[in-house]
Design goal:
single chain, 241 residues, Rossmann fold, ProC C-terminal domain-like fold, five-stranded mixed β-sheet, two-stranded parallel ribbon, 9 strands, 52% helix, binds NADPH dihydro-nicotinamide-adenine-dinucleotide phosphate, binds (2S)-3,4-dihydro-2H-pyrrole-2-carboxylic acid
Length: 241
């Protein structure tokens, strides 16, 4: 996630990357043409007045915060399931934001959620727009719910793509044809979804007594809709744990 953010920001911002391994940091800097400043995350790192993008796994929050000192200007955290309260306890900063990008950030096409300090909304939106679209949510509850859709969504859609491919392979299509076709399907579906409500897309394809109706009937028999709703519920509940 850090790499995606750097890629989006490196040509417009001064970026200092703090990490625990100088060899990895140098390799990262090489990948970005030497445009980064590097620093070791060690005791006494002064972050006074800086805007921090926190991109470690949630369990590393305590370790990272124990190294830094001073009052940061802003902190933008991408840590899943880590509340504003927990961040506030860990860091001293003027403005605090939670952000939830997704894997498409690597292609500048993230759908990123934001919540937190309204006074830092514009700045944080501008930063996160470097990796795609942003959407501000007024409460942390909405943010945690929405995360199941956009943060975990790529994994859910990958399962759909893979399952559809498995289906046609089972009927006799070659795997490479299936994969090529699924990629084209998702590419074409993106603009369709931008222009139409999903229910209308389904209705437009579902001819009376037709082949798609037979397939959709099977999905309903297998409770596919209910399975997705349960997946969202379980993802959200896990976020709160
Ligand atoms: N993957 C996803 O789709 C999404 C992830 N997120 C969130 O992004 C965050 C990062 O995830 P992701 O980028 O996938 O994880 P990665 O494991 O790819 O990256 C984590 C980075 O944190 C570094 N790190 C770990 N521990 C420490 C430490 N104690 N001090 C300094 N640096 C440390 C790691 O360094 P090293 O390699 O040297 O160990 C690594 O560079 C998570 O909190 C996750 O919830 C948010 C949205 C989507
Ligand atoms: O599952 C996770 O923990 C991370 C957060 C959102 C996407 N992946």
């Amino acid at each position: 996630m850090a790499k995606a953010m750097i890629a989006g920001l490196v040509n417009t911002h001064q970026i200092e990357v703090l990490g625990k391994d100088m060899v990895k940091l140098r390799a990262l800097n090489d990948a970005f043409g030497g445009k980064l400043s590097l620093g070791l995350l060690q005791e006494g790192v002064d972050v006074t007045g800086k805007t921090l993008l926190l991109c470690v796994k949630p369990h590393a929050l305590g370790a990272v915060s124990s190294y830094v000192q001073g009052e940061a200007h802003g902190l933008i955290s991408v840590l899943a399931g880590t509340s504003l309260k927990a961040l506030q306890e860990a860091f001293t900063c003027k403005h605090l934001i939670r952000a939830m990008p997704n894997l498409a950030a690597a292609h500048g096409a993230s759908m990123t959620l934001l919540t937190g300090d309204n006074d830092f909304r514009e700045t944080s939106e501008a930063i996160l727009k470097s990796i795609g679209k942003t959407h501000w949510l007024g409460t942390e509850k909405e943010f945690d719910i929405a995360m199941a859709l956009t943060g975990s969504g790529p994994a859910f859609l990958a399962l759909v793509a893979e399952a559809l491919c498995d289906g046609v392979v089972r009927e006799g299509l070659k795997r490479e044809d299936a994969t090529f076709l699924a990629r084209g399907l998702f590419e074409g579906f993106a603009p369709l979804l931008q222009a139409n409500h999903p229910a209308l897309i389904k209705e437009a394809v579902m001819s009376p007594g037709g082949v798609t109706a037979a397939g959709l009937g099977a999905l309903e028999d297998c409770k596919a809709r209910s399975a997705f709703m349960l997946a969202i519920k379980k993802t959200y509940e896990k976020t709160l744990k």
